[in-house]
Automatic annotation (TrEMBL):
Gene3D superfamilies in UniProt: NAD(P)-binding Rossmann-like Domain
Protein name: NAD-dependent epimerase/dehydratase domain-containing protein
Limits of the NAD-dependent epimerase/dehydratase domain: 3-220
Originating organism: Streptomyces alboflavus
Tree of life domain: Bacteria
One protein family per Pfam: Epimerase
Length: 317
């Protein structure tokens, strides 16, 4: 099977690509930035933007299935500038779903783990991604060719995730790079809010396996009855995660664990929030969270990555 991956140069996409290749599938990487030099054997590149109806339709004409990952990310970032996320996450998804229906292509759409927050007030990222879920359900119910499975990972983390300022160039701050880079450089870890909120994290390799399995299920059996929620069996607080990162970074650097400081929550973040998964939904695609990489192991792998790949260049700059 040849699979189109939108947003194919992104963090999660890079792991999904490896997983699909390992399963014997071909990959067509679609991205709005030319990254064809990063292709592996078995991959092809299609330069295009999901906001471009013609480009999406042309790419879809050459594949047997789609994993739709392209999105504008960010919580507070999308509040201050909501239009790009609306254009990409809603209209771009509409283009993907329309092309998939035109060619009767099984499709997997990446939802969000905090989808329920749209009912209590949150950022444009969650609002727009959840709106696209509604469109997916509409296609499945009422459009010939609608075969869309929704996969909702919680916070995916692991090697390769981009680093935001002041330690990198990414415009969006993600929890594990932010914690790891501060801990490795001896700076206090910054946690927004009191840290008692639950924001479950799942190792990106397990997320990639879920996307690949969901697509294979959709090919064989059609869309799952419920969205597939990808997360750990056991929930942990943000403070728990911060302590794990601080302690392991201390082992690597030979310093005492850095302090954990608390900052006011940012716009779009919900005090005392619980972002977790109904892991029973994984059974629909033949998976169980019991097989996922434990948080401690995942943190070690991730901090090791930043210590060996990011830290030397940062210190030399």
């Amino acid at each position: 099977m040849k699979v189109l991956i939108t947003g194919g140069s992104g963090f999660i996409a890079s792991w999904v690509r490896r997983e699909l290749l390992a399963r014997g599938h071909g990959v067509l990487v679609m991205d709005h930035q030319d990254r064809r030099q990063q292709l592996a054997d078995g991959e092809e590149f299609f330069l295009g933007d999901v906001r471009d109806t013609t480009a999406v339709t042309e790419a879809a004409a050459h594949v047997d299935g789609i994993i739709h990952l392209a999105a504008v990310l960010g919580t507070q970032e999308t509040i201050s500038n909501p239009r790009p996320s609306a254009e990409t996450n809603i209209l771009g998804s509409l283009n993907v779903f329309e092309a998939a229906a035109q060619y009767s292509l099984p499709t997997v759409y990446a939802g969000v783990g905090n989808h329920a927050f749209r009912l209590i007030g949150t950022g444009c990222y969650t609002i727009t991604k959840s709106a696209a879920e509604d469109l997916a359900r509409m296609y499945n119910l009422y459009r010939d060719g609608g075969q869309i499975t929704i996969v909702r990972p919680v916070n995916a983390y692991g090697p390769g995730q981009s680093v935001a300022a002041p330690y990198g160039t990414s415009k969006v701050r993600k929890i594990m790079p932010a914690l790891s880079c501060r801990a490795l450089t001896g700076a206090p870890i910054e946690v927004y809010g009191d840290g008692t909120q639950v924001s479950d994290c799942v190792y990106v390799e397990d997320v990639a396996k879920a996307f690949a399995a969901a697509l294979e299920h959709t090919v064989e059996h059609g869309p799952t009855e419920r969205p597939v929620e990808v997360g750990p069996l056991e929930s942990r607080t943000v403070n728990d995660i911060a302590r794990l990162v601080a302690e392991y970074a201390a082992q690597l650097t030979g310093r005492e664990p850095v302090a954990i400081t608390h900052l006011p929550m940012r716009p779009g973040e919900v005090p005392n929030a619980i972002v977790s998964s109904d892991t029973d939904t994984l059974k629909q695609i033949g998976m169980t969270a019991a097989d996922f990489v434990p948080l401690e192991d995942g943190v070690h792998r991730t901090v090791d990555y930043y210590a060996t790949t990011w830290l030397p260049d940062y210190l030399a700059a």
